Fold each of these.
Amino acid sequence: MSLALDDLRVRSLGACEYDSPFAEMLSTKRTSPHYVAEDDRVLVDDTVSVLLSHGVPIDQVPSFEAAGPRKKIYFDPAETTVGIVTCGGLCPGLNDVIRGIVQELTEHYRVKRIVGFRNGFKGLAKDARNSVTDLTLDAVRDINNDGGTILGSSRGAQDPDEMVDSLLIHEVDVLFVIGGDGSMRGAMRLVERVDERELDISVVGVPKTIDNDLPYTDQSFGFQTAFARATDFIASVFIESQAAEHGVGIVKLMGRHSGFIACYAALSVNEANFVLIPEVPFGLDGDDGLLCRVENRLREHGQVVIVVAEGAGQDLLECDGAKDASGNDKLGDIGLFLKDRITDRLTEVGLAPTVRYLDPSYAIRSVAANAYDSVYCVRLAHAAVHAAMAGRTQTVVVRWRRRFVHVPMALITGHRNQVDPDGDLWMSVLEATGQPATFGR
Ligand SMILES: Nc1ncnc2c1ncn2[C@@H]1O[C@H](COP(=O)(O)OP(=O)(O)OP(=O)(O)O)[C@@H](O)[C@H]1O
Ligand SMILES: O=P(O)(O)OC[C@H]1O[C@](O)(CO)[C@@H](O)[C@@H]1O
Ligand SMILES: [Mg+2]
């Protein structure tokens, strides 16, 4: 996708006139290899030929605004009320982000009040006007030790006007939306209404996705925890299949449209023979189809391990077009389908398989963040707070090539991050599994 510098400009509510609590600390800071000053920018691309292809001076190639504290801020902290909402599916680290935001706003900016809206955007609907909770330091003290979100979450559409009314009733000046692509679309609808009503409310997003399917972010928070947890299940079916005469282990992992968890977890264990992801179609039948390849592998090695992302092979299943409350496609169960088809095939050819099938999806996304993700979450939380207090709106904070930056909200929903079948990650998977680039197609 080709971007121009102007596509990457983030919106501000207005001039920053209040001293930031970080003003003194920032007074001598300049850009260094370890710090990007607030008036510097971070390049989108990092490859020489791509940078040259823009054909413009370096300060005009696409770049992001650096995240971080500003010397001057837009909101007067003493008069500022902040809201937080978590939406969509669970993801490790949600509580860390909530806690990080509350700590930063309380201990440094000393804002007037922080409220949490319960159960996602539902908590901003008209009939949920009492479902706010005060987020104090006490309220968030140990929440990072638990998975899930203390605020609850939900799917399903809400009326954006009602949501803006709720912000006004609770006198919210800044709203943090922690959620995935759908949540960011919801947040943009909210911003439209805020603009139409000429309100002075900042809406800042912290992108969340267990599937790692949001663009302009190195890896989304919670992703590392998720694939690390997934490795336990792959290791289990590996051991089970090893102990059986004709052992087949199958693990289905989350990944609606993007197979990152499957790829990373499989590479981590490095014992999978087939990794099946939505980005790479495969066929079952024929001499080079999956069934024949599984049979051959079993005959040669006595054991097969398959890691399948939930969105893989959907074209092989009958789909009734059902949607969830947010309008996302309800997927067919590729894991159970493969388990049945592989069992039938191997039984037919007399191999009497022992098939172990695990679907640990919710067991993976509901855990607390690991130490790496906790660090990542707290740093995203800090970046989000600094962005909002400086008046940024319709903006999300992400880490891109190790730098924390601001991205216009529309860009994060513009396309999906997916495993590139021509890229080096998939190449590593092919190297590790020994599976062919395509089969049965
Ligand atoms: N196009 C849209 N316009 C307005 N609101 C939306 C839109 N898509 C989703 N939303 C709202 O955003 C919230 C979360 O959306 P969704 O359930 O799709 O999860 P998500 O944020 O994409 O997270 P994930 O995919 O990681 O579970 C829901 O309340 C949903 O109604
Ligand atoms: O069952 P739920 O809660 O709708 O969520 C399932 C989906 O949410 C995700 O975790 C995030 O989009 C997907 O991987 C999965 O398909
Ligand atoms: Mg989504």
Amino acid sequence: MNTEVLIVGAGPCGVTIANLLGVYGVKTTIIDRAPDIIDYPRGVGVDDESLRVFQSCGLGPEVHADMIQNQALIWFDSNLTKLAEIAPSGQPFGWPRRNSFLQPMLETKLRRGVERFDHVDLRLERELVDLKQSSDGVEATVATLDGSTETIFAQYVVGADGGRSTVRKLIGAVLEGKTLPARWLVVDIKDSTYHAPFSGNYISSSRPFVSIDLPFGYRRFEFRLNDDETDEQMVQPERVEQLIRDHFNWTGPMPGLERSRVYSHHSRVADRFGNGKVFLAGDAAHLQPPWFGQGMNSGIRDAANVAWKLAAVIRHGASEGLLETYGQERRGHARALVELATTLGKVYGPRTKLGEKVRSYGLRAMQRIPATRDYLLQMKFKPMPYYEQGAVLEPSPKNAVGKMFIQPDVETADGRRIKLDEAAGDWFTVIGINIDPADHLDPESLRYWRSLGARFLRMNRSRAGQHLRQAASDTTLLDDVQGGFRDWARGNRNRDILVVRPDRYLAATCARGDANIMTRSFSEVLPLKSFTLISN
Ligand SMILES: O=C(O)CCc1cccc(O)c1
């Protein structure tokens, strides 16, 4: 069979790519060796960036409805005394920044999401055996349950097939880094009666532990195992129950154990995120300890990045070179999060009592100083993606190019208040702040943006006069009802034309007088096969 994109692995990252390709109209096949969603204890935290991606899949409110919003992460000492709190306020990207969730529930909705698309085909109980690349595409050999094999011919392949990725091995990529020595018992209970509405990380030199409030009565516990404790002993229900009672002074009846498993933590990043027409995403490309709840979120960022680039090449005639920017953009940020999670693990698990005291003293001191308390509380230590090279024009920390763009509410011309991305649509947007961008683009520039399929938006200051409420017929008029663009422009003066990519990253900005120069430069960053610039 033929397909445009073959995705190997139907976990959250793979299925998110499938949903996005569904939205972008790309013929996609997604395979997984398992008959169903894996029921191990897995991810528990979804951030605002991922929710924005699910929104782009057309599933934002639906998946968010199952989550506990704005869940704080609190650090305690082993006596259950609070040391520090992370609870960021504000929703710069249009969604709460920290949310707890049940992974099987999210995956069920994401899988249901792909059923909307006739051009996306999910095939279970199919295992990738081999890949052969040629200039025409990739030939994948896939084994089915009955022992037969089938061939899938795809233009491109994405390996989202987890930490033990077959795709990674077949393209000769290597996970660099290390596996940490400690083992952790991870337990989910159901019908929990323990009231602690937050994620708690308990710092201890003898046995660091974790308790996380999950939706619908579930609760996650994690305990570091000692060297003399075997996996088999520690997953026994009586042993698990004793650990929970001992560490949380729990005296009431013990609710049901849903699942338990022993994990080792890995801090690893693939030496490359692709080879030719094959790409790696999610755990196939990077593995991190769970401490900051970013493992799955990193994979969702990969999904958003690779999906629009594949669609741009397949559907919009972008040059294939665009696909090289995927690894350029994603690898550094994935590594930054692996490093952060690894460092946090060291904070939670001091080796000595003295180390425990130092952490306790240090975190309490940080709580007393407003600037450092705010640094933790507002999660300012989280490395935000910033693409210094890739499909971006002249990125600089000063002009915000290369960073995820804000998502304020806006008001449509017919008075509906919606999130910006709903107004922007699925693809590129060229936004004019208080101007119609089309008025400042010459025919060549207009031709470029139209060939790319970009939509023009005119973002008027809120409650603007009638003289500003006009635009060309294919420019969408919007009101900056929440003042998001006003505030953004205050920090980014003299830039009233913005280009936002489908993954909601700012690709370019300029002053209106430079709109044609910007367009010509951008057409070199993202060349289109159908578009050759007629230079002036
Ligand atoms: O960010 C959160 O709310 C929890 C992150 C976390 C911490 C410790 C273990 C774990 O599995 C997730």
